[in-house]
Structure to design on (147 residues):
């Protein structure tokens, strides 16, 4: 389980890319998702970071520490060679796909991710892949959502 500070750092990496959250744990429907548009730190004590989010009809603030507010991400296992080639990548393809589990065992997850070229890292973040190794209980797998 990530600490609140770690979660805040992780979520901020996705800020430019429209990361979506679902705040109702019983709902796994993409139509109930909120788009992350900013982070706010409350100046009162104790300081409470919150996610600034919006839906098409109105703006709202979601408490980042609510156990029901989870980001919608793809697990790295959904990344394919074909997708990377289509995106214009011709290097690190095996490292990111079928050899991934081997290299994670060799390096550990954080070191594995730190070895990626910036363009690959940016592609994974912009396409909402779980590259920060969030536990399955800390995010909603986009592949499992109802459209």
């Amino acid at each position: 389980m990530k600490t609140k500070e770690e979660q805040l750092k992780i979520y901020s990496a996705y800020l430019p890319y429209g990361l979506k959250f679902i705040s109702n744990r019983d709902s796994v429907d993409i139509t109930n998702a909120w788009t992350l548009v900013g982070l706010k730190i409350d100046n009162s004590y104790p300081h409470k970071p919150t996610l600034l989010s919006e839906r098409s009809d109105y703006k709202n603030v979601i408490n980042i520490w609510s156990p029901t507010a989870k980001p919608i991400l793809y697990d790295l296992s959904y990344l394919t060679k074909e997708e990377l080639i289509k995106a214009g990548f011709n290097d690190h393809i095996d490292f990111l796909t079928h050899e991934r589990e081997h290299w994670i065992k060799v390096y550990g997850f954080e070191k594995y991710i730190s070895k990626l070229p910036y363009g690959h890292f940016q592609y994974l973040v912009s396409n909402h892949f779980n590259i920060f190794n969030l536990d399955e209980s800390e995010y909603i797998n986009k592949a499992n959502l109802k459209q």
Notes: The mean pLDDT is 80.
